Amino acid sequence: MLNRALRLMDGDIITRMGFFIGDLHRQIQQLYKEQYAGTTVADTFTVYRGQGLSTGDFEKMSKIKGGLISFNNFLSTSKDREVSYAFAESNQANPDLVGILFVMKVDSSRSTTPFASIAGISDFQNEEEVLFSMHSVFRIQDIKQIDGNNRLYEVNLILTADNDPELSRLTDYIRKESSPDEEGWYKLGSLLWKMGQFDKAEDIYQVLLDQTNDDKDTAFIYHRFGMIKYSQGKYEEALTFYEKSLTIRQKILVPNDPELAKSYNNIGAVHDDMGNYPKALLSHEKALEIRQQSLPPNHPDLAMSFGNIGVAHDNMGNYPKALSSHEKALEIRQQSLPPNHPDLASSYGNIGLVDSDVGNYPKALSSYEKALEIRQQSLPSNHPDLASSYNNIGAVHNNMGNYQKPLSYFEKALEILQQSFPSNHPDLAYPYNNIGLVHENMGN
Q1: Distance in angstroms (rounded) separating the CA atoms of residues 228 and 253
Q2: Distance CA 364, CA 395 (A)
Q3: In angstroms, how far apart are the furthest CA atoms of the chain?
Q4: Phi, psi torsion values for 202, nearest 5 degrees
Q5: In angstroms, rounded to a whole number, what is the distance separating the alpha carbons of residues 92 and 147?
Q6: How many helices and strands, by DSSP H and E, does the chain display?
Q7: Using CB atoms within 10 A as the burial measure, which of 76, 215, 261, 320 is most buried?
């Protein structure tokens, strides 16, 4: 039940089982210290895991050969290849799954990822089980068919070392993004929001609001309410909360405080989605002005502001200004972010949008495909930004007269959004509309 909750990011179960998760992690850490403490010379061994992957997840993994893969559950492996092979082979009966035998090389002297042999305490001692804690990260070395069977594959992995430069850069940035200054219920509310558990996040923040008399905390909570409502497509409510937060912050903060820029940034995003483009542009320019005064020139938040200004100009038909802003955003992100970071995909997507608007469809398609490639590497398979990429690629093919191609892209976009949003969310209108346009162009 726990591993299923971790895979599906079920906030309710994860919250209820938080103490158990922490206890299990600490037990694995303790066993790791007892079994591998002081190992300084190379001590490499191999473990195996057999499981089924959906065809979609397998295709995604195949595209990132040489890249990183993370298991966000407690990972059970075996030193016995035959035991794991049997698990992999058993998945062939399901036409929607591909049987995978993971072959994992582990050097205990180079990594501090907690793992431990639990053969001595397991009910299945003959399986020689090695249990890894959550979020173990491996590098994909090779993917190959087993005995020419296209429904059974061996995937060779190596457990990453602490000095892996790509992993270090990516985890450092994620750590900065994941509310490092928040604690307790504030951090829980943030995590629930990021997991899409909007109602639970709102309940947490309401409790915090009822308990505080501090203006700074009140402004922060109103801002978070705005983020929740925005994520739900409730733009008028989001705007109300953002403006409440801004009013308080203007009273208690200095004029160039970065928190003010966050308020202007999010107010601009709401205006943009409501079609109030001049107001959106004004808000984003205020955010940029504050950030230029208070942040270093290659800070990712500056890229965010340039990107948002570009979107506003694009929506107003100011295409040269839009392209210039998006190129500035891309340049900053290339300097400050890992090459597979989703924000780079946003820049490529925005540049593609401008090129599409001016009729430069081949160039737009190239940018959209770069954005999709990054998102497939870095986002879960049902993330709304993937739907945006599929929608954009479909639209370009439709504009180029390739009427057979766009339908599958629009249907993929719709499928993702149906999984991610309530049935009345405004973003669902886009793929429905585009599917209708394709059928109209095909005479259906």
Answers
A1: 24
A2: 10
A3: 71
A4: -65, -40
A5: 14
A6: 19, 8
A7: 261
Which whole number is the average pLDDT over 39-43? Answer: 62
Query: Can you list the positions of beta strands (E) in 95-225?
Result: 97-107, 115-117, 129-132, 136-146, 149-159
Domains of the chain in sequence order: 2-160 (3.90.176.10)
DSSP category for residue 339: T
The structure tokens listed for 7 are 């895979």
Q: What is the DSSP letter of 338?
A: -
Amino acid at 226: G
| pLDDT at residue 101 in the model | 96
Measured CA to CA, the distance from residue 158 to residue 69 in angstroms comes to: 10
Give yes or no for a contact between 337 and 380, defined as CB atoms under 8 angstroms apart: no
**Pairing between β-strand 97-107 and β-strand 149-159 as defined by DSSP bridges:** parallel
The residue behind tokens 């205990």 is 108
Kindly report the pTM of this predicted structure.
0.62
Distance set, CA 428 to CA 73, 75, 345, 372 (Å): 31, 36, 21, 19
**Which amino acid appears at position 66 of this protein?**
G
Read off the tokens for 105: 């090389």
Dihedral sign of CA atoms 63, 68, 71, 75 in order: positive
C-alpha 209/C-alpha 217 separation (Å) is 8
Alpha-carbon distance values, 133 to 30, 31, 153, 204, 331 (Å):
12, 11, 25, 28, 37
Q: State the Cα–Cα distance between residues 78 and 218, nearest whole angstrom.
A: 50
Read off the pLDDT of residues 134-177 as tens digits, 9 standing for 90 and up: 778 888 999 999 988 888 999 999 998 766 766 666 666 555 55
Cβ distance 140 to 65 under 8 Å? yes
- Antiparallel, parallel or unpaired: β 136-146 and 97-107: unpaired
Angle between helices 406-420 and 384-399 (to 10 degrees): 160
How far apart are the two ends of the chain, measured CA to CA in Å? Answer: 46
> What's the CA gap between 75 and 207, in Å, rounded?
35
